[in-house]
Amino acid sequence: MAEKNQKAPQAEEQDMSELLRVRREKLRELQESGNDPYQITKYPVDNDSANIKANFDQLEGKPVSIAGRMMSKRGMGKVSFCDLQDRSGRIQLYARKDEMDEAEYNRFKKYDIGDILGVQGVVFRTQRGEMSVRVEKVTLLSKSLLPLPEKYHGLKDTDARYRQRYVDLIVNPEVKDVFVKRSKIISAIRDYLDSHAFLEVETPVLHNQAGGAAARPFITHHNTLDIDMYLRIALELHLKRLIVGGFDRVYEIGRTFRNEGMDTRHNPEFTMLEAYQAFTDFNGMMDLTEDMIRTVAHKVLGTGKVERDGVEIDLDKPFTRISMVEAVQKYAGVDFTQVETLEQARALAKEHHIEYEERHKKGDILNLFFETYCEDKLVQPTFLTGHPVDISPLSKRCKDNPEYTERFELFICGGEYVNAFSELNDPIDQRGRFEAQAALKAAGDEEACDVDEDFLTALEYGLPPTGGMGMGVDRLVMLLTGASSIRDVLLFPTMKPID
Fold first, then answer.
1. How would DSSP label each residue in 328-386?
2. What is the pTM of this model?
3. CB within 8 A of 437, min separation 6: which ones?
4. Tally of CB atoms within 10 A around 495
5. Distance separating alpha carbons of residues 57 and 145, to the nearest angstrom
6. Structure confidence at residue 8 (pLDDT)
7. pLDDT tens digit string along 416-461?
8. What average pLDDT does this structure show over 28-35?
9. Is 412 exposed, middle or buried (0-12, 13-18, 19+ CB in 10 A)?
10. What is the enclosing helix (H) or strand (E) of 241?
11. Cα(383)–Cα(297) distance, rounded to whole angstroms?
């Protein structure tokens, strides 16, 4: 039995090798007979499978010209059937030898699953009642030299699906649906912000220094200037410069890069939405965020209710609002309003077996309590507010309690979707926080930022009271499509090279 199992892979390799040889031989014969598919530059397409089925009564008996990939074939005697998959779905093709040019029909019989065909024919219904196209002329537009995996949908090797997304899209229609929805979600976000007088802008991807978030950057080198540059970790600082310049409402949807770990919610490059509005605060951005997500869901899905991990998430109900201190008191039983010193915070952390680093301040330890005890409890949409200054270097302080900031994060299903502030516009306070971050970086914190002198100069010219928000677009797409991994909503996720 062991010997048989050892031979099986060899037999599979031989079978595959023979399939590849046969397909290349068919291509050579076509080319030698003057029917090289790669010489064809265009094909007249005037319809698609979905439209034919949706408007069958009007199209029955009328000619159509369609194109797509052959996904199955049967018969291939004097009568042949196959399924053609185009941009909108599949439709059956019905071909009879006595209704076509004989040489063309014989070539058609030799075409393989995966070949791309152009078909001219008439819309009709078979005796079994299936809406189909009766083929009059078929043209091979591209030869598939590699066979499609027959049971691709059942494969557990998701790694192969991500590496060869083009194959995944061909054989798994539901995967294509996810990315169609992704496109519609992004369009709906744009429509919403445009309708609220926001201006879409573009800011640099290459930065002289990383800033706007706590993250480790990717570093590259500009040869002409002979300087290191950073792929942006956030859009924030350039967008706030534009608010200084007089654009009262701006937003950008763009790729952002963070040189960090990879898991079901993180990819080194991802899509961020950041929006900034002058003369409002974090409460105004909270209202905008809630309304935008609800509006997008209804526009794309037709409902405000989505299912995630077997739980119905209700985006129509008012989102819960709770402060970090309140959440820690509720779920951990620890009241940080009574914690006055770093020593007290450290003692509580030790008591609750929460590991902290020497550099962590009282606010950092409060955040560690939240992450340990509270984060996974926030299943329905919840705005978490009142973040400590220690973890909020770009957020305005609360007037009545300057240890905390006017900031919120939106949590759904235990994960963060949005981060937002009343933007810090005091250049003196901002310099102090930048310098504190620079000290942390010098002490070895790779996620801390440097002092951005040009941004401080912009603030000194005057940033009006401003509310800002940043949202992970990929995570919103995951929520609205039911995807369990960020890789399922990225067409080409980052993958470790096979070699």
1. HHHHH---GGG--SHHHHHHHHHHTT----TT--HHHHHHHHHHHHTGGG--S-EEEE-
2. 0.92
3. 393, 448, 449, 450, 451
4. 12
5. 38
6. 64
7. 999 999 999 999 999 999 998 899 888 888 888 889 999 999 999 9
8. 95
9. buried
10. helix 236-244
11. 18
Q: Is 20 helix (H, G, I), strand (E, B) or coil?
A: helix
Work out the burial of residue 7: count CB atoms within 10 Å of its CB; fewer than 13 is exposed, 13-18 middle, 19 or more buried: exposed
Beta bridge partners of 349: none
Q: What is the mean pLDDT of the chain?
A: 93
At which residue do the structure tokens 């090797």 appear? 157
Residue 298: which of 130, 174, 185 has the closest Cα? Answer: 185
Cα 465 to the chain's mean position, in Å?
32
Tell me: pLDDT of 1 over 50. Answer: no
Name residues whose C-beta falls within 8 Å of residue 90's C-beta, 6 or more positions apart in sequence. Answer: 49, 71, 83, 84
| Residues 49 and 86 sit within 8 Å (Cβ to Cβ) | yes
For residues 9-38, average pLDDT? 89
Query: Which range has the worst mean pLDDT, 93-107, 275-289, 440-454?
Result: 440-454
How confident is the model over 399-415, as a mean pLDDT? 96
Q: In whole angstroms, give the CA distance from residue 141 to residue 69.
A: 10
451-480 as b/e: b if 16+ CB within 10 A:
bbeebeebbeeebeebbbbbbbbbbbbbbb
Beta strands, E only, 188-289: 199-200, 206-207, 219-222, 227-231, 249-257, 269-278
Cβ–Cβ under 8 Å, residues 419 and 392: no
So what's the pLDDT on residue 155?
45
- Stated as kind and residue range, the H or E segment containing 243 is helix 236-244
Residue in the block written with tokens 């001219």: 120
**Among candidate residues 412, 333, 323, the one with its CA nearest the CA of residue 363:** 323
Residue 252 neighbours by CB distance under 10 Å: 22
